Amino acid sequence: MSANRPPPPISTMLMRGLFEENPIFRLALSLCPAVAVTTSVKNGLMLGCAVLVVQVLSSMSGSLVKHVINPKIRIPVFTLIIAIWVSAMDMILAAYFADIYQQVGLYVKLIVAFAIIISRMELFSMKHSVVPSFWDGLGMGLGFLVGLVLAGAFRELLGNGSIFGIAVLPFKPLLLVVLPAGGFFTIGLIMALFNWVDVKRGHKLPSGGGGAHG
Amino acid sequence: MADAKVVSPHEILVDGALPADATAIRLVRSADADIPLAVVSVKPAAQANSFVLTTAETLNKQDHYQLTAKGVDQAWEIAPSPLTMVISVIIGSALINNFVFTRYLGLCVFFGVSRNKDTAIGMGVTFTIVGLLSGMIAWALNTIALEPLKLEFMQIIAFIGIVACLVQATDLILKKVNPILHKKFGIYLVLITTNCIILAVPLLNATNGATFLQAFGLALGAGLGFAIALFLMSCAIEKVNMAPVPAIFRGLPIAFIIAGLFALSFLGFSGLKVA
Amino acid sequence: MTCVSGKVVNQAPPSAREMMVIAAGLAVVCLFAAIILGSLYFVTQPAKEHNLHAREETMIRGLLGLSAQARIQEVRRYLKSEGKELQVIYLTNKKLAQLELDGKEVSAVAVPDDVAATSSAELKDEWVKKQIKVGNPEHLKYAGRFFIGMEGTQPAGYVVEGVTLGFKNWVRFFMAIDSTYTIQGVEIIEHEEDPGLGAEIVQRYFKNQFAGRSLADIEKISVTKDPLPAEWQAALEQLGDMPFRPWAEKYREMLPKNPNIHAITGSTISSVAVTTGIKTALANFRKRMNIVGSYL
To answer: Is B34 within 8 Å of C143 when comparing Cβ atoms?
Structure first.
């Protein structure tokens, strides 16, 4: 744990988070907000940015303090670090972005329970120094952000006929998509899409499908 | 305080003695206590020593009202009974606003654990118990310490701390007291810490300023709702895993689609009101 | 995620001394966290309140069509339930008036400038609690508020804050009226209705149906399931881009042709809830104005 492994190239770290190990569609971690918050692009963007910031800061903090912490308590300490950043994020959003905060407030607070952040700290920050941790966190966070915006765009366009609040279609095609059920369908379909792209690229699908749970 | 309750949108059934003169009666909504509501008539009810008040304005069964009358010492408080309230909160958080299908919380664990019925039941039971305990402890801490001292910004840290400690303590206690049970349920305990629902319950209680009974109802309902969702999902997934699902859908994608179908059916509970 | 939790489960339980060290370490980190977050709280809390206040002010100015020089005065209402009779207390910019329910004055105290000028509800409530002595703090409660838009020394209109029980949960709204109790506009501030259904109460084609109705209209008004005529809908969408008076002038004839509120398709309950809420709020405000009017 004390030795820093040589980090992978930056582009790999970034692309990994966006596609191969996309937190939402491949690793299936931290799904709660993916379904809840993607009723519009704006909401998805806001929460995605919040998670990105928390992810990056937490990964960096984890890497900074890894020598100082007794390994037995590293999980609680990671959780505390994440909780600090999340509380800070929560207060800043509530103060300066109040109308969006009204819609996503609860989910911002729940970032502290996201498995993705703590698992990233455990898997990556513990073995690498600060700067690579920054890039890894950024990659994962970006993957999460892109996932949220993608799902958000799909649901807002189909459910509300708009993108980012700007009306694109003169009618609302399928209201269902904006309701909770629609969120589930959307994520399922996008996951299947990622699987399909994977098959096209020639990779074999894991036998359990695009998920990390055994 | 004697008994009185709202029986229809314009009628209140009152236990006790009321003057026959409607103008001597004062009925107000507790929140708007300076504006008396118009009482149209007072008539004796079917039961002995009871009266039926008819009002011009529409009454709400969930609202609080106060009733006094000139020349009568007694005062009546009209509010939904605590039992009704707790039951409606429980049903609300278990069915109407089911944490998985309506609020989309607890999904990570949900999709991982609903592979077969046994694990689903195990997780459901463990979660309900731990969730209830942590919800009540968090409520107590919030009401006694955090809010009076204006430390609300420490809520997230305090709540996650409570959950982590409780899970750890339960793990240790269970290992010592009942190793067999620990072997069976131990793994679920640890997964609880990353379950969004366990953190969402105290946060929601804090935001809504819940009373003890409301907090209890929400925590219990959340656990029950999660258990129900897990059980339903596991039954469906067991069957689906034996069906010819297209390769790109196998695993999580089809699980999400099924969850969506369940969410659709739970939509039917929307607007359900108890009592 | 599962491998992370696996690691924790398989470790041997720590010794007592180790636990003390661990607990101490965690306590230090917690304290550190508390200090960081506490300082951040002190910085962001005023900003949060300021933004909330700024949003309310924008809404009120928009509803009443106030000029840039107009000021907004808040009047807060409290209920004191100690003693034989209930008393109602009003905090205006000038006076703190303690009144019996029929309007008879019990006491009237001048309000210091800093309390009158502050936008913090907490500060105002605290000051009131100090002035009005009650044995049990539960017996003095904040009960509601309204706003007055002042152009110079004349009131240009009032904005009443009301609540009503919607389909899911409470719906909070602002209702703007002029001195003849004619409604100038409605804004929904808070609700938990379903998107696409009950949540449509925030749309112009629903909430603007209340604009231009007189007190007599509102007393009789009801909700109809008839479809919204396209012409009326086009007119309703304009209020907001246009201030109230020009809009009411332009569409003067359409109002009597649409005497009832057209419900939102699929959300009759939400529509009725808002209509009932507006009716009650207007009637209550009129009764209260009779009592508090002289203190404004």
So the answer is: yes
Name the minimum distance, in Å, from the CA of C6 to any CA of chain B: 8
Distances C270 to C112, C161, C265, C273, C278 between C-alpha atoms, Å: 42, 18, 10, 5, 12
Label residue B274 by pLDDT band (50, 70, 90): low
For an interface test with C, the pick among A30, A75, A84, A174 (most C C-beta atoms closer than 10 Å) comes out as A84
Q: Which residue of A has its CA nearest to C41?
A: A91
Which residue ranges make up each domain of chain B? 4-80, 83-269
C243 occurs within a structural domain: yes
Question: What average pLDDT is seen over chain A?
Answer: 77
**Predicted local confidence at residue C8, as pLDDT:** 43
Contact by Cβ (8 Å): C73, C93 = yes
Q: For residue C249, what are the contacts with CB-CB under 8 A and spacing of at least 6?
A: none
Q: Do C81 and B33 touch (CB under 8 A)?
A: yes
* B156 Cβ under 8 Å from any chain A Cβ: yes
Residue A191 touches partner B, C-beta closer than 8 Å: yes
How many whole angstroms from its chain centre is CA A3? 28
Give tens-digit pLDDT for B123-146. 888 889 999 999 999 999 998 888
Strand partners, C171: C164
Is any Cβ of chain B less than 8 angstroms from the Cβ of C117?
A: no
Question: C131 in a domain, yes or no?
Answer: yes
Is the CB of residue B268 less than 8 Å away from at least one CB of chain C? Answer: no
Residue C56 within a domain? no
Rounded CA gap, C72 and C225, in Å? 38
Degrees, nearest 5: CA angle C180-C186-C189: 135
A175 and B CB contact within 8 Å: no
What is the complex's ipTM, to 2 decimals?
A: 0.78
Of B155, B160, B203, nearest to A79 by CB-CB distance is B160
Question: Does B253 sit within 8 Å of A195, measured CB to CB?
Answer: yes
Q: What pLDDT, on a 0 to 100 scale, did the predictor assign at position C209?
A: 92
Separation CA A137–CA C133 (nearest Å): 56
User: Cβ A187–B256 below 8 Å, yes or no?
Assistant: yes
Whether the CA torsion C52, C53, C56, C57 is positive or negative: it is negative
Range of the domain at C178: 71-295
Percent of chain C with pLDDT over 70: 95
Q: In this complex, do A72 and C22 lie within 8 Å of one another by their Cβ atoms?
A: yes
Domain membership flag for residue C21: no
CATH architecture of B4-80: Sandwich (2.60)
- What was the pLDDT predicted at B105? 83
Instruction: Using alpha carbons only, give the angle C225, C230, C235 rounded to the nearest 5 degrees.
Output: 105
| Count of structural domains within chain C | 1
Q: Å from A41 to nearest chain B CA?
A: 18
The span from the CA of B109 to the CA of B130, in Å, is 15
Interface membership of A159 toward C (CB under 8 Å) = yes
